[in-house]
Amino acid sequence: MRDPYDILGVARSADEAEIKRAFRRLAKKLHPDANTSDPKAQDKFAELNAAYEILSDKDKRGQFDRGEIDGDGKPRAPDYSGFGGAGTRRPRGFSGFDGDTIFESFTFGPEGQSGYTRRGGRPGAGGGAGGGAFDDIGDIFGFGRQQRSAGGGFSPKPGENVELTLPIELEDAVQGANKRVTLPSGKQLDLKVAPGTLDGHRMRLKGQGDQSFEGGVAGDAFVTISYAPHAKFRREGDDLRSELMLPLEDATLGAKVRVPTLSGAVELNIPAWTSGGRTFRLRGKGLPKAGGGAGDLLVTTNIALPEPKDADLEALMRKRRDGKAS
Questions:
Q1: Alpha carbon distance 310, 150 (integer Å)
Q2: At 247, which CATH number?
Q3: In sequence order, which ranges of 56-181 are alpha helices (DSSP H)?
Q4: Among 63, 180, 187, 285, which one has the highest count of C-beta atoms within 10 angstroms of its own C-beta?
Q5: 16 and 115 share a domain?
Q6: Span 156-170, pLDDT tens digits
Q7: How many distinct structural domains can be found in the chain?
Q8: Which domain holds residue 74?
């Protein structure tokens, strides 16, 4: 795996907020749902999440920066070449090094910026008595970013909530459906959309939001339902509108025709001598209402001439027109 800093496009000195902003920006760009034509979209998104998992965790980030783990989070083999040759362990009590370079610890300052603090082995060099060797131990273990509770302990800050939008077909709103949603983390969940679900309905998925940086509980994910545009129906509040192409003979003589609705086709009685532009109301065949029930479906007729051209009909129409002119 590549360097997590390169994957997120941030500097090694980036703080938690910068890392989080970079992840959110790239998560939207690389999300599999937004790249359905890219066969490697899932792998790219997984790589992004793996990088974020390392850099958003203080301990893992420190281990990576110190070379203790690789970009996949796996431990690296220790390097003892600086202790008199490869494979040679440092002897107990060994003191043959400069006291200013014996011990280095990765720390986080109050703003979350990273850096190295040198620890010497000599008094006065930052590592012995009076040297303040552990004056920043709270930062080393992440306490500087936590809030004290009333009892004197530490109350970890919870993770942030996540907002998602789930488009559904109008038929799904009326009949109900099972839908799959992909979280920013890459995790996929199956959700049940109940019959009669309203546009803008908001569902809470507890504990499915962002993970806490400090060991607290995860945030929640909120999924908002959004009605997708329909090829046959046009929305007007709770009502729907559609058009019906009516053959000339049915418009003239009357007929019973099948009309599509969100819950299946129904039979509509067309009276004789129905003109184009006439609207029929099918009650309760529209969209769910907030107070219960459903709106109506308004069907407007359009007259369709025969295909191919009918010579007899054309002669009849010419005769009628000539008769009116005389």
A1: 90
A2: 2.60.260.20
A3: 58-65, 137-140, 170-175
A4: 285
A5: yes
A6: 778 889 999 999 999
A7: 3
A8: 4-88+95-147
